[in-house]
Write a structure and sequence with these properties.
single chain, mainly alpha, Glycosyltransferase, 15 helices, 58% helix, globular, disordered N terminus
């Protein structure tokens, strides 16, 4: 190979340019970056982080709730927004599901003044009641990608909780018929393997099956009759998806011969699956604690996908929308642990959740601005979890904060 001629003008110019670049970088590292770090902007960033950690939980919830009220849309909706569209519009199931989750978050948030909040809930409920009449919310067993089940699940759970709270008597006559309709809709949409899914009807997805079972549990706990076989089939589906490493498969039964699901890719659905099994007397605290510990151990893999484009990205297939879903249900799981460990776990959880709050007191795991309503609502539910009734217990008629 011929050697370059070092005495040529072009080579000397390259050497000189390289030397100048190296010197410039060293000067920047030694003098410029420290000055930037000491700048008012850097102090502002540091101060914000310190402020977030120092704000009392109750005040943090108050501020986040205020933001949810501000971003409620004129028709009463807090729609969840993802990449999926129907006729270029946000699907009705996402509009209902997103709005219902915000209504749940506002219902039990410990607030000093509920007047504006309950008015916002009423606007949301009216939107849900209207949208449930949409043809695309009718019961369906079509084997296709269809997100209406999210509207059915969270619509049912929200109406049950609102009615049981005793604070929305003016809406009960409108909600009760839908409670009675949504239960058989979910039963008809239950798959042959005992679970639920939105991507297809080929096999269940644990992160859909668990919330569906919880919605039905809440309905049963508050007086509705549901055949025990429905829950038994759901338990069978969940147990069949749990691998020997504690990871629940994304869908269907776990592949034991293939080593099962990779644990880091399942941490957002493991706690809700274990919690639901425990609620149905088919789980145990050891499995639940292991799921909670794994969440923290592999949290960085979840964080890598927050506010990123794309969905199921290698190596673990983590989609951004798992992020606050996972946090909300992890907080719920803590309430099923022995009482002596809960406070420690709440502190561990809250420190992690606060890390990802935006500077306007909202949380968002997507690149879409409207989805901050979902992320914020899930985070408020998580922060308020000690006030949120578990689905297995009748909802007490009370005013949060009293």
């Amino acid at each position: 190979m011929p050697m370059p001629k070092t005495n040529s003008p072009k080579n000397w110019m390259r050497i000189r340019a390289t030397f100048i670049t190296v010197v410039f970088r060293r000067i920047t590292l030694a003098f410029v970056l420290p000055l930037v770090w000491l700048s008012p902007l850097a102090f502002s960033i540091n101060s914000y982080g310190q402020e977030v950690q120092s704000i009392e939980r109750a005040e943090l919830i108050e501020r986040a709730v205020a933001r949810l009220i501000e971003i409620q849309e004129p028709d009463g909706a807090w729609p969840y927004e993802g990449v999926y569209r129907v006729n270029r519009q946000i699907p009705v199931g996402y509009r209902i599901g997103g709005t219902a989750i915000v209504c749940q978050a506002l219902l039990d948030a410990p607030l000093q003044d509920r007047s504006g909040v309950d008015a916002a809930i009423r606007r949301g409920v009216k939107l849900i009641l209207t949208e449930l009449e949409h043809p695309l919310m009718a019961v369906s067993q079509a084997n296709q990608y269809d997100v209406r089940v999210w509207g059915h699940i969270y619509g049912l759970e929200t109406f049950v909780r609102l009615k049981a709270s005793g604070r929305f008597a003016d809406l009960e006559d409108a909600m009760q018929p839908w409670i009675e309709r949504l239960i058989p809709i979910l039963l008809e949409e239950q798959l042959e393997d005992g679970g639920w899914n939105y991507a297809s009807r080929n096999q269940h997805a644990p992160f859909v099956t668990a919330p569906a079972l919880q919605a039905l549990l809440a309905a049963r706990a508050n007086g509705m009759t549901i055949d025990a076989a429905v829950f038994e089939r759901g338990v069978e589906a969940l147990l069949g998806s749990r691998g020997t490493n504690g990871a629940f498969s994304y869908s269907g039964k776990t592949s034991v011969s293939g080593g099962g699901e990779k644990l880091p890719g399942s941490i957002a659905r493991n706690p809700v699956s274990e919690a639901t099994l425990l609620m149905l007397d088919k789980g145990n605290v050891q499995h639940l604690q292991a799921a909670i510990d794994a969440f923290y151990e592999h949290w960085d893999e979840l964080e890598k996908r927050r506010k990123k484009t794309g969905t199921h990205v290698a190596p673990y297939g983590v989609a951004p929308y798992y992020f606050y879903y996972g946090h909300r249900y992890l907080a719920q799981s803590i309430e099923l642990l022995p009482e002596e460990t809960r406070e420690r776990e709440h502190q561990r959880f809250e420190a992690v959740l606060r890390k990802t709050m935006d500077d306007d007191y909202t949380w968002n795991d997507r690149v879409f601005d409207r989805s901050r309503a979902f992320g914020t609502a899930m985070s408020i539910l998580a922060l308020s979890q000690t006030a949120v009734p578990l689905p297995t217990k009748p909802t007490a008629v009370r005013v949060p904060g009293e």
